[in-house]
């Protein structure tokens, strides 16, 4: 197409000594396409109407018609044709007279961007032939009637993803006649997990339904001992979301020619999802202050965030890991890349990627917060995307970790992945991208190190099992949890695990050996502690248990430290200190209780009601130190949701959201949000205050538009209480 650009267009191009045409990374921009492209001087008396002329093009683009049904795109709330690559679709062309194959010659042209070029895949001429080859561009006539023909068009299985403009060109002796620009025939082409030749092919229908077509998911949060879950609306089919997702690739300045490659798309998207470079979609905030924005815990889904960004072009405030992962999942599923949201419990944020999280103790065995820089996140969410990895050796395709949360830079930008899960499991961290960082997130050890007065470090305790002890995602076809820890690591202590670790170290993951730090732990005494389940605003107790397996009597000087923490494990304030001496009789167990009053923690509580408890004990007879740490979440009350009246498509009904304030204080600045993908767009309502023990009731009327099983999701946000959710599954009947 570019060869045919008119000369005045050439003059307008900015002069650039390095490339003949400017970079082409806007799917939206267009070029002028001449309706009559003459071969030379047009003779007098030439009348284009004497030749075959296109009167109309019919795209079969309604949700119930053949194209969207066969391509699994009938759920997109978008009036244009949406198809998946590597699979045939149909269009009908009406001419001004019957088509004569012997003498008439026409072809189709698909164009993308402002500088379409055939060798870049942005100008695609398709000549009508007699057979369609799988996974290659082509067209053949499948039906002729009167002045109409019906074509079956095959797209390439590696074709670029995005919105193409369609023209029909007819050859005459004096030039080429084209249809005029008509946006109604624009065609979106997406990835195709149903096509064996596509890089994102997934062979299990149930998994495709879950990882591509499900528009609601579950975010697992809380901590290992107390897994909590909440729903998240991905909303990848909602109005304008597809255009917003294509805009993200423009924003990331990904060349149009690179947009057929899921590896490239994932890599640039993991940077553009966060605002740390190039003003991406979401601004992160972990400091409990969310002025001029929405608290991360208040969002119920991705749609509001993506549409706000698409219209304002400014980062949306604010997000934390599950928000970045939720929006990233929407982006991937919307474009047709199978994707799932992952939660890694006790996730290591290792500042120097040495597989070692250092917690420093002072002389007495208490944790020294000044020296301790590493933090263990209660949980961290990332995504996995499914694709082949032709850039890696055989065997490393399949699920790839991608992470949009800005943690560390990779090649100069805040991004992470795609990193092969299989490579992480086997320790092959030499394979791009960012495998060592992910390996450390799931495999680090915790070192408790005491600083002597003269500056030497003594390793007192090593915890090899805490980090990455549970990695989960939503199960296929249900709301339950699926444990995928074994996809990331071999069983703790097995020979395979040792081998994977040695491989990772060989490939450059730094691991300090213990030999050079003369480490001899106390092996004949075990210490652990349990925390009573507690509801926010109540007192609860912590029980510390010692098991003395030896024949000796010991005394243990024990320090208990209770901290209010961000879910990233970073301490806001130590609210409880307690020390006592424990007498440990030979071959017996002894327990000690510590009571925690609500008055001690309520004033400083952060939004996820998250505590971090450290217990360290020094055995006085041997000088050895035992150390245990745990994250604990309080039970946060939930919202109650119910519907009133029958649930039928096209009939108005109402939903009622209720909440009772359980705290011993009034809640100020209360905001409720409610959404349901395919049911209703997000509605927000502000309530000034809810006094203690009083109940708030909110009724919302809506008219369901689609039948089937749907989900309503609500959240409540206030100054003193956040992370309050409720959800309800509803079955919408056909009228």
Automatic annotation (TrEMBL):
Its lineage reads:
Eukaryota, Metazoa, Chordata, Craniata, Vertebrata
**EC number(s) per UniProt?**
2.3.2.13
Record flagged with keyword Secreted: yes
Catalyses which reaction? L-glutaminyl-[protein] + L-lysyl-[protein] = [protein]-L-lysyl-N(6)-5-L-glutamyl-[protein] + NH4(+)
Q: Where is this region: Disordered?
A: 1-26
Main site of residence? cytoplasm
For the keyword Mitochondrion, the answer is no
Organism, as annotated = Prunella fulvescens
**Name of the featured protein:** Coagulation factor XIII A chain
Biased composition of type Basic and acidic residues is found at 1-12
């Amino acid at each position: 197409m570019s060869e045919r650009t008119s000369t005045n267009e050439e003059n307008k191009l900015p002069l650039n000594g390095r490339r003949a045409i400017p970079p082409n990374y806007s799917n939206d921009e267009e070029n002028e396409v001449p309706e009559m492209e003459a071969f030379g001087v047009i003779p007098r008396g030439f009348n284009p109407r004497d030749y075959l002329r296109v009167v109309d093009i019919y795209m079969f683009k309604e949700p119930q018609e053949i194209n969207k049904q066969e391509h699994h795109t009938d759920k997109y709330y978008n009036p244009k044709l949406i198809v998946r690559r590597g699979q045939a679709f149909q269009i009908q062309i009406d001419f001004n007279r019957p088509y004569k194959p012997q003498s008439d010659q026409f072809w189709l042209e698909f164009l993308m961007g402002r500088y379409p070029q055939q060798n870049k895949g942005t100008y695609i001429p398709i000549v009508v032939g007699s057979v369609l080859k799988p996974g290659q561009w082509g067209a053949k006539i499948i039906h002729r009637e009167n002045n109409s023909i019906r074509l079956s068009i095959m797209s390439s299985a590696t074709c670029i993803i995005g919105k193409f403009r369609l023209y029909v060109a007819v050859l005459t002796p004096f030039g080429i006649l084209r249809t005029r620009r008509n946006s109604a025939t624009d065609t979106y082409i997406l990835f195709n997990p149903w096509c064996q030749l596509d890089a994102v092919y997934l062979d299990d229908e149930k998994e495709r339904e879950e990882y591509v077509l499900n528009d609601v998911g579950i975010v697992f949060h809380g901590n290992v001992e107390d897994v909590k879950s909440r729903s998240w609306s991905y909303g990848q089919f909602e109005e304008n979301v597809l255009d917003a997702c294509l805009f993200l690739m423009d924003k990331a300045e990904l060349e149009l020619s690179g947009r057929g490659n899921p590896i490239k798309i994932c890599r640039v998207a993991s940077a553009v999802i966060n605002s740390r470079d190039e003003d991406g979609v979401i601004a992160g905030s972990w400091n409990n202050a969310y002025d001029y924005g929405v608290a991360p815990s208040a969002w119920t889904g991705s749609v509001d965030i993506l549409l706000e960004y698409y219209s304002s072009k400014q980062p949306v405030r604010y997000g934390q890991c599950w928000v970045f992962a939720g929006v990233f999942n929407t982006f991937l599923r919307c474009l047709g890349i199978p994707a799932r949201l992952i939660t890694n419990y006790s996730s290591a944020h290792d500042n120097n990627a040495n597989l070692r999280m250092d917690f420093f103790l002072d002389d007495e065995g208490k944790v020294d917060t000044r020296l301790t820089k590493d933090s263990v996140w209660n949980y961290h969410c990332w995504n996995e995307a499914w694709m082949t990895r032709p850039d890696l050796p055989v065997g490393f395709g399949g699920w790839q970790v991608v992470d949009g949360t800005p943690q560390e830079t990779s090649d100069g930008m805040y991004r992470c992945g795609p990193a092969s899960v299989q490579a992480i499991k086997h320790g092959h961290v030499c394979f791009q991208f960012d495998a060592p960082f992910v390996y450390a997130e799931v495999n680090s050890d915790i070192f408790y190190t005491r600083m002597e007065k003269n500056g030497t470090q003594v390793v007192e305790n090593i915890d090899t099992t805490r980090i990455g002890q549970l990695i989960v995602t939503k199960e296929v076809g249900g709301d339950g949890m699926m444990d995928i820890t074994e996809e990331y690591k071999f069983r703790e202590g097995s020979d395979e695990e040792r081998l994977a670790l040695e491989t990772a170290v060989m490939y450059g993951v730094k691991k300090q050996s213990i030999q050079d730090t003369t480490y001899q732990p106390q092996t004949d005494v075990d210490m652990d502690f349990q925390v009573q389940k507690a509801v926010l605003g109540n007192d609860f107790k912590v029980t510390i248990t010692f098991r003395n397996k030896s024949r000796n009597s010991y005394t243990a000087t024990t320090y208990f430290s209770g901290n209010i923490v961000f879910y990233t494990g970073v301490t806001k304030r130590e609210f409880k200190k307690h020390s006592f001496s424990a007498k440990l009789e030979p071959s017996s167990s002894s327990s000690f209780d510590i009571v925690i009053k609500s008055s001690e923690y309520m004033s400083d509580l952060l939004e996820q009601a998250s505590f971090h408890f450290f217990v360290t004990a020094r055995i006085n007879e041997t000088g050895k130190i035992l150390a245990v740490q745990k994250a604990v979440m309080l039970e946060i009350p939930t919202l109650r949701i119910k519907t009133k009246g029958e649930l039928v498509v096209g009939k108005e009904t109402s939903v009622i959201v209720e909440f009772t304030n359980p705290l011993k204080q009034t809640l100020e600045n209360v905001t409720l949000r409610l959404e349901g993908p395919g049911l209703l767009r997000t509605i927000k309502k502000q309530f000034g205050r809810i006094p203690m023990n009083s109940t708030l009731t909110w009724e919302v009327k809506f008219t369901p538009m689609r039948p089937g099983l749907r989900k309503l999701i609500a959240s409540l946000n206030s100054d003193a209480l956040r992370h309050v959710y409720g959800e309800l599954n509803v079955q919408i009947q056909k009228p």
